[in-house]
Amino acid sequence: MTSGGDIVAATAKAATTTIPIVFISGGDPVARGFATSLARPGGNMTGVSLLVIELVPKRVELVRDLVPNAARIAGLINPKNSNAGRNLAALQDAAREKGVQLHIMEASNETELETAFANLAPLQAGALVVGADPFFNARRDQIVALAARYSLPAMYEWREFVDAGGLISYGPSLTGVYRQVGTYVGRVLSGEKPTDLPVVQPTLFDLVVNLNTAKTLGLTVPQSILARASEVIE
Fold first, then answer.
1. CA 186 to CA 199: how far, in whole Å?
2. Which residue of 7, 43, 114, 194 is most buried, as measured by CB atoms within 10 A?
3. Same domain (yes/no): 193, 85
């Protein structure tokens, strides 16, 4: 099993064409060569595709509902991420659809994160959408602290950011994802072949809101969001 995203899956793929691999992919597993198709992987790899890019429009929609007066939003992207180009295009399309200006922040290390937030402050962006990225996940506390320092409403992919004090998150249920991966590992160990196990996409999604953070930011969370939330932290 691989759990570090596309980079780890690609490394595992390069290492063997015979040992079964069950991956968690943030990108397009077909485009990355992990599978011939979602329905018939066709090799020694199968797993879960997280719909990272496909959920960008929904995250932008939610943050616009939460901060309706935001004329400008920012997007945080790691330029070294293999999905950076697709993430950027999805953010641009979603911002255009919602009629808001978009400013892109790039960071691939701790210093660049500090600089990106400092440079964003004069632009008076009304909200931030943090792109899905393993480095950002590892720097969760720093990013949440920076958003708080600059009083910036931020949308994240994983609920762990909200648990750490972030405002709102929307993304696949990690519990559901790991359960599916565990099921596939068990089936492979029982003798089934990855080529016969379709690459699956999440069906459970977590929308988590931190009302304490919203209050600190002076935001009133719309009932439309609260009614859909998987969990509300008070």
1. 15
2. 194
3. no
The candidate with the shortest Cα–Cα distance to 34, out of 8, 68, 53, 52, is 8
Q: What is the mean pLDDT of residues 83-109?
A: 95
3-state secondary structure of 21: strand
Confirm whether 1 is domain-assigned.
Answer: no
Residues 6+ apart with CB under 8 A from 42: 35, 36, 195
Side-chain-side CA neighbours of residue 25 (13 Å): 29
Check if the beta carbon of residue 35 is closer than 8 Å to that of residue 46: yes
Signed CA dihedral, 56, 62, 68, 70: sign only = negative
According to DSSP, residue 43 is labeled: S
CA distance 208 to 206: 6
Residue 33 structural domain:
6-52+172-204
Chain-centre distance for alpha carbon 210: 18
Determine which helix (DSSP H) or strand (DSSP E) holds 77, and give its type and residue range. strand 72-77
CATH code for the domain of 176: 3.40.50.2300
Q: Are residue 65 and residue 44 in the same domain, yes or no?
A: no
For residues 214 and 138, state if they share a domain: yes
pLDDT by residue (tens digit) across 5-38? Answer: 677 888 889 999 999 999 998 878 998 889 999 9
